[in-house]
Every structure is written in structure tokens, then in C-alpha cells.
């Protein structure tokens, strides 16, 4: 049985197609209405002034009928595209039967847990448990904090500079960005942050890496060696200033931090340090997981299995909210009610997630994401611009670091490129510690032709912005 239409049939035909100024008159009305009644915390329309009406596949239509190619996908949520008919059929069938069941057993719930277990990293496949809490990635992170504390008896947390783990109290404590925390302190006590390795930004000679690195099998990158040495010090240093942390939380690829891909030995080094110190290693796969990188989970590129991994975003299939944590069964030590949340029984989201897995497998979207990501990165690398510092990423998780003449991240150029793109019908986003990274997160169902058209617009915007910045 064929599971859903091919990716070529999912989209609006006319994308990109922009007939009005941006925002158009109807979008402007809705933006003004939002400003009158919505929260001042609203953020995304401040950067991309649009109001949306419909979406199909890798295309989205605004309230004025303009059609955009979507290299944004709701910040990596819509991995199988907007309104994927195969996924929506499963969601709607479930919605007509039963929607909310807290944590009572249902076929949808158990099928979803088994489906995730089948695509889990090898070290978790067949010996894992899953816990649900609230419907977001932040909720999954909160569950992971409780898991680590409960199993180690320690309360310290270790995360990385440049990280983003969510906006709730514990997740915000782990998040590296001080701007997210301003006005909301204090955070959880004994939460420490160490540098995340960034070979491009640090630009260090690698001659001394082996001498510095705490690992026997050094990958030769000084930024990695320095980071691992800092992690080890927080666990084993007599003057680290606190007890050894309960766990290490790490994004296999940093998202908000600028789509930073760590050196080859980094995750294995963390695995070894965690094992040596009876701590948990927890991968935040909320953005890097569910096929986005060309593997099911970002950590698989390094061949490293965590003790637990948090997930959200794409796992709800159709953009439905669902947060969860998969962890090794040996850590399943909590009793009934050990982790709670009213909305941990979102059955339509679970059915949507199962259907999304089936659709990705049926249409070989992991390989497609790998190949399309290579094409996108190669197209951008071919742009002749001294202001493109680095093009990086894996699969369809792509970052383009833009720099000024002094080598600093160039937020103004990112904004100019973003504006030029949406005015021509392509949606892109930003990242980086100074918002100087162009972040591309297209759905896995984007076609080669759509990518080619979109990259014509993106590369032209990069070239024009380079000329303006010279």
C-alpha cells in the first residue's frame, strides 16, 4: 500500500507568487488587529510581517493570496509539510473517535511509543521507555531534569553556552542565552554552562588539541578539546565550586546558537565523561530530530547513544503539539505520578506522528533530506562573497553565518536577506548569538525544483546584500 501522494503533489503550484506589497492589505489589517489584542510577547511577525491563511507541503499562502516557498516550516515543526494529506487522514480519523485520554492506554498511544522505539538510536532500540508531560519541548526538558535528579540524587545541571532548551523554569535555566532570562531570575541553583565547540568562530590552531583533550581518541580540534576539558573539570575538579552535575544536556547540533555542528569527537567525549562520573547524557533532539538532519536523530551522525533524549516539534506529524522523552529502561525508577501533565494524552498528535514516520519511510525522505541539504549548502557556498563566513549543517538543518568586514556576525545583513527573500516569496529565518546566521529549515518534502527556485532568490539576496555592505 502506498502511503500518501509523492512529494511533488503536496504543494501549491504557483509558488512563489507575490502580487502585493508585503504586508498586503489584508495581512496588514490582521497584524494591526493582533497588535491591539494579542500579547506584547508576540515575536515572529516583528521580523516577517505576514498573516497566513493556508499551507500545503513546502508552500504557504498569506491572507492576501500571496504564495511563499517555506524554508522555515514553523521553526522545524512541519517536517512532512503543511497539511500532508496522509498525516491529516490519520489525525482526522482519530479526532472523530477520541482526542484526550491523559495517560490511559489507547492503541494510538501504544502504537506511537512503539513507532518511536523502532526508529530510536541503536542503544535505545528495544530497551527504552517513553514519558509524556505537557505538549511542548520545554515540558520534555522539564521531565529530563526530573529524571536526572531522581536517578542520581544530585541536583546540579550542566549545559552549554549558545544553547536553547525552552522557556519554562528548568528549561530556561539550561538555556545559554542571557537575554531569554533577563527579568526572570533566579534560575535553578548549580546550573553551569561551558563553551560549546565552534571551530569556525574560534578559529584556533589545532596543534595543541591532543595535549589538551581529556580523551584518548582526540579528533584534533582545539575547540572540542577545550570544551571537553571544561566539562570534565565541572565533574572532577576539586575547585569547580559545586557538586558534580546530575547530567549533561546538549543539542547534537545547536539550533538557536547558530546551527553549530560540533567536531567529530565531541559527543563521544561527553558520553565518556558522563559514564566516568555516573551522570546522565541527555540529547535535546527537539529541533535536530525526527529526520531533520538526514538521520532520524541528530546524535546518530556521531554514533553516540544518549541515556535520554527529548523530542517535540515534528513528532506531532501535522504541527500538533506533543512533547516526549525517550530514555533507557534502567532509569525508569519513578513511581506513579513521577512526571505529570494534563495534556499527555494527545491522541491525534500521536496518530499524526505515526503517519509522519510512515510517510518519511515510504518516500525515502531521510536520503532526500541528505541530498537536498548538500545541494542547498553547495549553492550558497558558490556565492562569491567575503561576507559569507561559513555554510554548515546536516540534512535540512542549515546555517549560513554572515559576517562584517571585521569578522563579527552581521545581524543587519541577515535581516536584509530575510526581507528581500520574503518580498520575493521565500521564507527564511535567523539564528546565532548575535542573530548573524541565516537559518534554513525547509520541510523534508521540499522538491528539488522548489529548492532550486528558492535558492535563486536566496543567493541573489546574498549577492545584493554583499554589494550593499561593501
Describe this structure as you would to a colleague.
The protein is α/β, with parallel strands linked by helices. Helices cover 37% and strands 14% of the residues. It has helices at residues 25-37, 44-47, 73-76, 85-97, 107-118, 137-152, 169-174, 178-181, 199-202, 209-212, 222-236, 266-276, 347-362, 365-381, 411-423, 448-469, and strands spanning 52-56, 59-62, 67-70, 128-132, 157-160, 191-194, 247-250, 280-284, 308-311, 324-328, 388-394, 397-402, 426-427, 429-431, 437-440. The strands form three sheets. Strands 4-10-9-8-7-5-6 form a seven-stranded mixed sheet, with helices on both faces. Helix 5 (107-118) runs parallel beside helix 13, helix 11 packs parallel to helix 12 (266-276) and helix 14 (365-381) packs parallel to helix 16. The longest helix is centred in the last third of the chain and has 22 residues, at 448-469. The model has no long low-confidence stretch (mean pLDDT 95).
Amino acid at each position: 500500500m502506498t502511503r500518501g501522494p509523492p512529494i511533488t503533489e503536496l504543494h501549491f503550484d504557483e509558488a512563489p507568487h507575490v502580487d502585493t506589497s508585503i504586508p498586503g492589505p489584508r495581512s496588514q489589517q490582521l497584524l494591526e488587529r493582533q497588535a491591539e489584542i494579542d500579547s506584547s510577547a508576540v515575536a515572529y511577525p516583528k521580523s516577517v510581517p505576514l498573516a497566513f491563511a493556508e499551507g500545503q507541503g513546502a508552500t504557504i499562502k498569506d491572507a492576501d493570496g500571496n504564495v511563499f516557498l517555506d524554508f522555515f516550516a514553523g521553526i522545524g515543526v512541519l517536517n512532512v509539510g503543511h497539511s500532508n494529506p496522509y498525516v491529516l487522514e490519520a489525525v482526522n480519523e482519530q479526532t472523530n473517535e477520541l482526542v484526550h485520554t491523559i495517560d490511559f492506554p489507547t492503541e494510538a498511544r501504544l502504537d506511537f511509543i512503539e513507532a518511536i522505539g523502532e526508529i530510536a538510536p541503536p542503544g535505545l532500540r528495544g530497551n527504552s521507555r517513553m514519558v509524556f508531560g505537557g505538549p511542548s519541548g520545554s515540558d520534555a526538558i522539564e521531565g529530563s531534569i526530573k529524571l536526572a535528579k531522581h536517578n542520581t540524587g544530585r541536583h546540579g545541571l550542566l549545559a552549554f553556552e549558545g544553547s536553547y532548551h525552552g522557556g519554562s523554569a528548568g528549561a530556561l535555566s539550561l538555556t545559554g542565552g542571557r537575554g531569554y532570562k533577563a527579568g526572570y531570575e533566579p534560575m535553578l541553583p548549580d546550573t553551569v554552562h561551558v563553551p560549546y565547540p565552534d571551530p569556525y568562530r574560534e578559529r584556533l590552531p589545532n596543534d595543541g588539541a591532543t595535549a589538551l583533550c581529556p580523551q584518548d581518541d582526540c579528533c584534533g580540534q582545539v575547540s572540542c578539546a577545550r570544551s571537553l576539558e571544561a566539562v570534565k573539570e565541572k565533574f572532577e575538579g576539586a575547585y569547580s565550586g559545586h557538586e558534580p552535575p546530575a547530567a549533561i544536556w546538549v543539542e547534537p547540533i545547536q539550533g538557536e546558537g547558530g546551527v553549530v555542528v560540533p567536531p567529530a569527537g565531541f559527543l563521544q567525549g561527553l558520553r565518556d565523561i558522563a559514564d566516568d562520573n555516573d551522570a546522565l547524557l541527555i540529547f535535546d533532539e527537539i529541533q535536530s530530530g525526527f529526520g531533520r538532519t538526514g538521520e532520524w536523530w541528530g546524535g546518530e551522525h556521531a554514533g553516540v547513544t544518549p541515556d535520554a533524549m527529548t523530542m517535540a516539534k515534528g513528532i506531532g506529524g501535522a504541527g500538533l503539539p506533543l512533547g516526549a522523552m525517550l530514555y533507557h529502561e534502567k532509569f525508569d525508577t519513578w513511581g506513579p505520578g513521577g512526571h505529570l501533565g494534563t495534556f499527555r494524552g494527545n491522541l491525534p498528535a500521536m496518530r499524526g506522528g505515526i503517519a509522519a514516520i510512515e510517510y518519511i519511510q515510504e518516500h525515502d525522505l531521510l536520503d532526500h533530506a541528505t541530498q537536498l541539504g548538500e545541494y542547498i549548502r553547495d549553492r550558497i557556498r558558490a556565492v562569491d562573497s567575503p561576507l559569507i563566513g561559513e555554510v554548515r549543517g546536516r540534512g535540512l538543518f542549515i546555517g549560513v553565518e554572515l559576517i562584517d568586514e571585521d569578522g563579527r556576525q552581521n545581524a543587519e545583513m541577515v535581516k536584509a536577506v530575510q526581507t528581500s527573500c520574503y518580498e520575493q516569496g521565500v521564507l527564511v529565518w535567523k539564528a546565532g548569538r548575535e542573530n548573524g546566521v541565516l537559518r534554513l529549515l525547509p520541510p523534508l518534502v521540499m522538491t528539488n525544483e522548489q529548492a532550486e527556485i528558492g535558492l535563486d532568490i536566496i543567493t541573489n539576496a546574498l549577492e545584493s546584500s554583499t554589494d550593499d555592505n561593501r
